[in-house]
Design brief:
Order of helices and strands: HHHHHHH
Shape: globular
CATH architecture: Orthogonal Bundle
Number of helices: 7
CATH topology: Arc Repressor Mutant, subunit A
Length: 136
């Protein structure tokens, strides 16, 4: 996370977050940026981390009229922070994987990818033929 924030001079205004396909996002980018900056400011190891972030939200003039954000509990803030951290970790994981893929392509010949069997849930829902029943 620190690596992500260090890419920007003013992360509270400039930070870009790559969102996944989540269409039901109710938090604004400004709120998400604020949460990430506060996570970095207080550190992830504190016991009262989310309570402190909640206090910062209440004291910040940025959210004075943002009733939705002001009314969030520390548990809701914790959930959102976890989601944001997951997105940031995925973003950096994909970047690192992309760099590793580029390096491996240059040094080794292309290998065929084996397609996996598919989704286990879908496989379990497929209709299986019934065994013949004995009629009396």
């Amino acid at each position: 996370m620190r690596e992500k924030l260090s890419q920007y001079r003013a992360p509270l205004q400039q930070l870009q977050i790559q969102y996944n396909q989540n269409k039901g996002k109710v938090y604004t980018e400004e709120e998400d940026r604020f949460l990430l900056v506060m996570l970095d400011k207080f550190g992830l190891g504190r016991e009262d981390l989310y309570e402190r972030i909640r206090e910062e939200i209440r004291e910040s003039p940025l959210f004075r009229f943002d009733w939705f954000f002001l009314s969030r509990t520390s548990l809701e803030i914790q959930r959102r922070c976890t989601t944001l951290l997951t997105m940031v970790m995925r973003e950096f994981g994909e970047e690192k994987r992309g760099l590793e893929d580029d390096d491996s392509r240059e040094s080794t010949p292309a290998a065929k990818k084996v397609k996996k069997a598919g989704n286990k849930l879908v496989e379990s829902l497929k209709v299986r033929p019934l065994s013949p029943m004995k009629l009396i």
